């Protein structure tokens, strides 16, 4: 016997995107008819995405692109419109380059309904084409996190509308890491965040070049630094360790080696720390992921330094897009 479907209007959805084309059409088509309203927030598409969304039955919100764009700002705009159209108990946030997996919404609805203290539930996000490039495979591995109580979620998650409203939604000023930051505030307010063993979404990273991976990883470093600056104090220590590792391996150690080489060529021996670190991590993660995890400390350190330079100069950070 299968579980009954959630009541119509119990779950709404907020989808954000720009020039996603066929990916957006597939995203909207992956939602069952009983998920309403569907709100699509468009950030300046030139490929007809708003018309395609309307044809699929979605309410379209055109973001004012005269203002600095962030995904957090787009999600807030969609969330506000969703609440104007009705008051669903739960909202599924999803990026326009993703598709909802069959059975996810039913399972997530049942989970949140059974746990009144849970504000967020997420499942397994997978890459649609992990075989297309090493960069896609790295993304797919990144999504593979264990089920259970969690500190954060990603861009795809089912959330309790009342909880998101209680903490004021996403921070619109963040150019990255807005979902973990929201989860910090939700947990601080007494809510829980969970991951369950359930297929959730298919994502299309569409990364074919190392430059795309570098930008995405650099954006991660920026998110680490900003998250640590906002919530790095005890007991949360949000992204403090991640920021320190990025700076140590991606900036401090290279600088020490360069300065040491001025004094003695033996300082070059310190370069062996990098393959040794790959070897250590490979026992748990495999060679491919370990190698790029270590290499990724360089773009992460770049992102960290960019955040702090902008902060010192009092400049607003520019969105780091990889596709």
In the CATH classification, which architecture of the largest domain applies?
Answer: Alpha-Beta Complex
Tell me the span between the first and last alpha carbons: 44 Å
Query: How would you sum up the major sheet?
Result: 9 strands, mixed
CATH topology of the largest domain: Spore Coat Polysaccharide Biosynthesis Protein SpsA, Chain A
* Number of separate strands: 9
The total count of helices amounts to 12
Helical percent range? 40-55%
Strand content: 15-25%
The count of domains is 2
**CATH homology superfamily name of the largest domain:** Spore Coat Polysaccharide Biosynthesis Protein SpsA, Chain A
Structural class: alpha/beta
Top CATH class of the largest domain: Alpha Beta
- Residue windows where pLDDT falls under 50 for at least 5 positions: none
**pLDDT averaged residue by residue:** 94
Element pattern in H and E: EHEHEHEEHEHEEHHEHHHHH
